[in-house]
Input
Amino acid sequence: MSVHYTLNLRVFWPLVTGLCTALVCLYHVLWGSWGARAEPPDGVDGGFPLLKVAVLLLLSYILLRCRHAVRQRFLPGSPRLGGDAAFSSRHFREPGLSILLESYYEHEVRLSPHVLGHSKAHVSRIVGELVRAGRSRGSPGLIPGGALALAFRGDFIQVGSAYEQHKIRRPDSFDVLVPLRLPPLVALDPRSLGEEIALAPAFRSCFVCALKAPPSPSGASGGHWLRDCKPFADGFCVDVRGRRHLSAALVLRWFQSHLQRSLATVRYSLEGRCRVTLTPGGLEQPPTLHILPCRTDYGCCRLSMAVRLIPAVHLGDGVFLVAPPPPPLSSGLLLELPGGLRSEALWGVNTARQEQKLLSWLQERAAPGACYLKCLQLLKALRDLGARGLDSAAATQWGCILSSYVLKTVLLAVLLRKGAPGQSWDEEHLGKCLEELVQFLRDCLLRRHTLFHCVLGPGGAAAEVGPLPKVLREAAPVDLLAAFDGHARELAAARLLSTWQRLPQLLRAYGGPRYLARCPPPRSQRTQGFLEGEP
Output
C-alpha cells in the first residue's frame, strides 16, 4: 500500500509565523544596537521588510482559518428524519457531509505514516529482544522434566489495526501474538463449541483442546504416553469430561511469570532507549507491556505505548488459539458452563493472518483510489463520537457492542457481498460509502442481517484466504452479536441512528482546530441515557 504524505496546515502556518516573529525580534535587536552608529539619512526608507513579511503571513493564516470556519458554518445540515428514512439517498446531502468528513479525517482521525512507522519499528525491536530472552531462558524449575514444559517459539506476530492500515488517532496501542512451543510428546485435539446448544452464545466462538499422543511410527501404547506426559498434564491441563485439556488459565499464568523473568534479563540493556514495565492481566486479560520514552531519548516520536502480549498456540495454516478467550460481554450471561465444561479450559481463536490476506485480496481487486479503509476509520470515529455524553457503564457497553473487530467485520461483509470495491467506493463517494456501512451495521443490530465471523465456518471466506485447518472449516458459523440481548442491540441501533443524524453537528463541534470549533449545545438541551440524548 502506497504511503502519501500531506502538509499539516495546523502546524505549518503557526510554525512559519512563529519563525518570522523570532526573526523580526532578532532584527529589532540588531537594528537597535546599530542604530546609534548608522542612522538612515533623511528621506531614505528605513522600513522593516521582515516585519512586513511576517504581517503578510499572519494575515494569510487568518484568512485561511476564517475561510475554513465560514465553510463549516454554512455547510448543509443533517437530515432530520427518523427510522429507515434517515438512510434514504434522497435526503442524503453528500457534498456537505463529505467535506466535513474529509476535514475531520485530516484533523482527528488520520495517523501520520511517519509516526506510525517509527512506533511499529520501536515495538518490534523491544518485543523481539524480550521474546528472544524468553526463548533462551526456557522454563527453569517450573515442573519436573524440563523437556515437557512450555517454551517460547522464538518469534512473534504483529496483529491488529496498526498492521492493517486502519488504526486511528494515535499509534499508542498494539497487539502482538507470542507463539508457544509444545513438548514433542504432546499434540492437541481442538474442538469448536459452536454446536453446544446449551452453551451461552458468547462462548460458542471458543475452542477446547484435549491432549492426544502425536503420530509415532514406533506405535507406543497409550498407557506409556500418558505416563510420560504426566508432568506436562499436571502443570498445564484440567479434566473436562474425563479427558485432559490444555488450560488457557494455567498457560496464561505461566506466560505472565515467564515474561516477568525475561524482562528482568533485558531491562538493563533497554535503559538507554526506553523504560519498560509489565502489567499482568490476571486470568481475564493478557499482560500489557508499557514502553515509556527515556528522558535522554531525543527521537522524533517520543510516544508512550502499550503492547498487549497474547500467548498463542499454533493450530496450522497461520491460525492460533489464544488465551484468554474473549470475555462474556452481555450482562445477563451465566458464568457456569453446562455439560461438565470448565471456563479455564476455553480458548479463543485468532485468524488475523487470514483477515490480512483477505484485505490484501480485496486491495488487489479494488479500483484505484478506493476508500474502504478510510470508511472503516471514519466508522470507528463515528463510534467514538456516539460514546460522548454516556456514563461509564453505558459507554463500556456501547464500545463492546461496536468493537473494532465488529466494525471491521461489517466492512468485510459489505465488500464480500459485492465481490470487490468498485467505482462506487471512490473517494468522491466517501459519505455515501460510510452511509452504507452504518445502515448495514444497524440492520445487523436489529437482526435484519446476521453478522457472521468472516473466516469461521463453511460460509467463511476460505477461498480468498487460502487453506484453513479442518477444525475451522467444520466449525459452526459464529454470530458476533449473538452474545448481546435484544434490548441492548435495539438501544445500540437507536444510538447509532441518533449519532448518524447529528453527524454534521458533531463533526463541527469536535473536529478541526479547537479554537474555531463551535461549542456543543448546552447540557440542558441534551437528554440523558443510552437511547436518548445527543452524543
Observations:
- The chain is about 45% helix and 10% strand.
- Residues 9-35 form the longest helix (27 residues).
